[in-house]
Amino acid sequence: MSGTDLSHRTDVGGLFRAHYPWLCARLRRHLGASSSVEDIAAETFAQLLESPGLTPIREPRALLTTIAHRLIYQLWRRRDLERQHLDQLQHLDQPQASSPEELLQLTQALHGLDRTLQRLPGKVRATFLLSRIDGLTYPQIAAELGISQRSVSVYMTRSQALCAQHSANEPLHQRSA
User: Fold this and answer.
1) Which residue of 64, 87, 154, 164 is 20 to 30 Å from 96, comparing CA positions?
2) Quick one: pLDDT at residue 173?
3) Per the structure, how many domains does the chain have?
C-alpha cells in the first residue's frame, strides 16, 4: 500500500467519523426510518474510499450528498424495476400468472443478483445499471460518469461476466424465466 493510499484511507476515515451521523440524518429526510439509510451512508463512504484520493476534498458534505443521492436514485430505480416486474406478473392471465412461491423465488433471484452486483466497484456497477436500467448508450454513460467510452466498454464486460457467473451458480429450480 503506497503512502498516498494510506493517506487517502486516513482522510476518508476522518470524514467518516466527522460526517457519518450527519449523512444518516440527512438521508432519513429522504428515506424515512428505512433500513436503507445506513446501507446508503456506508456505501457512500465505500465509494469515496474506492475513488482516487489525488486532491483534497474542499466541501466534504457536498461530495457526500452527491454520492448518496446517486445511490438513492439507484435504489429507487431498482425498486421501481422490481415493482414493475411484479406488476406485470400480476396482470398476466391467471393461467400464466406466477404462484406466490414463484414470485418469492423471482424476488429472491433479484435480491441475489443485487448482492452480486454489490460486489462490483462503484463505477462498474453504476455503468451496468445506467446501461441496463436506464438504457443509456456508452457515450451517454461516459459523459454521466466522467469516464472514457473505453472504460465503459471494459466495465460492461466485467459486469456482464459477473452476471453470467451469477446465472451459472443459481440453482436450476430457482430459474423461472
Assistant:
1) 164
2) 38
3) 2
